[in-house]
Amino acid sequence: MAGNCGFCSIPLDFDFTFAYQPIVNTKDNTIFAYEALVRGINGESAYSILSKVSEELKYSFDQKCRYKAIEVASKLNCDTYLSINFMPRAVYKPEVCISSTLQSAKKFNFPIENIIFEVSEQERPDEFNHIVEIFKSYKEMGFKTAIDDFGSGNSGLLLLAEFVPDIIKLDRGLVYEIHKDPVKHKIVTNIVNMCRDLGVTVIAEGIENAEDVEVLSSIGIEYIQGYYFAKPELEVLPKVNFKK
Q1: For 88, which DSSP code?
Q2: What region, left, alpha or beta, does residue 109 occupy, with left being phi > 0 and alpha being psi -120 to 50 degrees?
Q3: Rounded Cα gap, residues 102 and 67, in angstroms
Q4: Per residue in 99-117, pLDDT tens?
Q5: Do residues 231 and 26 touch, judged by C-beta distance below 8 A?
Q6: Domain EAL spans what residues (predicted)?
Q7: What span, in angstroms and rounded, lies between the C-alpha atoms of 23 and 82?
Q8: Per-residue buried b or exposed e for 165-199, using 16+ beta carbons within 10 Å of the residue's own CB
Q9: Reported pTM
């Protein structure tokens, strides 16, 4: 499990900001949410920032990410859901570590019920129980929860069995060029049917072409994220070209 409160006071020696990418509702051509994606202040990649985050800095970084993602989104007048990634190892106690999120939401008048916390299925297996604990706490506090990269790791179904989130985001590998792949089509169809029974919203991410959008829509996936609709933009809520 993540460290202790001693990490709170460790200052970061680098700065960062966020790019935002829309998640589109293809049924009614609206924007469901924006995902906050960490970037350098000059647009440097997420990797270039995350590579600077040592174990000792994870708490400080995670806290600042939450605060800044909300701060920038609020200044951009985001009135949809806002999806924020978090680091489970940076959360030593959910009800304590959520304080900066609550402070930011209050300061910038951003409704907590519009915040989605997502965690990747690819997180370390030894974090499994800790993730479940965090998710349960966040749900009780009024936040939305999401499993990212669903289908790419080795614990997605186990996590789903222990905690039913509001959202799962299908990994790009499961949906990329699904219009050419009957096996992917069958797998995704069954995931969608399962999630429908569980009351879980499904989002397909990494979508780049109209053919995949059409197939995913026919399967019953209304929510799409990917370059087909809009690329992430630095400190901007991108406009979406709702293509037919």
Answers
A1: G
A2: left
A3: 9
A4: 778 889 999 999 999 999 9
A5: no
A6: 1-244
A7: 10
A8: bbbbbbbbebbbebbeeeebbebbbebbeebeeee
A9: 0.90
> Tell me: the pLDDT tens digits for 118-177?
987 555 556 778 888 888 989 999 999 999 989 876 567 888 888 899 999 999 999 999
Q: Identify the helix (H) or strand (E) that includes residue 121.
A: none
The span from the CA of 135 to the CA of 167, in Å, is 12
The residue to which tokens 């706490």 are assigned: 137
Helical H segments across the chain, by residue range:
46-50, 58-75, 94-97, 99-107, 128-141, 156-162, 172-175, 182-198, 210-219
Instruction: Round the CA-based radius of gyration of the chain to a whole number and report it.
Output: 18
For residue 79, give Cα distances in angstroms to 16, 22, 42, 75, 140.
Answer: 23, 12, 25, 11, 22
How many whole angstroms separate alpha carbon 225 and alpha carbon 42? 24
Q: Which helix (H) or strand (E) holds 19?
A: strand 17-25
Q: Sort 44 into a burial class: Cβ within 10 Å, 0-12 / 13-18 / 19+.
A: middle
For the four alpha carbons of 83, 88, 94 and 98, in that order, the dihedral sign comes to negative
Residues 175/212, Cβ–Cβ less than 8 Å: yes
Query: 18 is written with which tokens?
Result: 């966020």
**Could you identify the residue written with the tokens 């993730």?**
131
Phi, psi angles (nearest 5°) of residue 97:
-75, -10
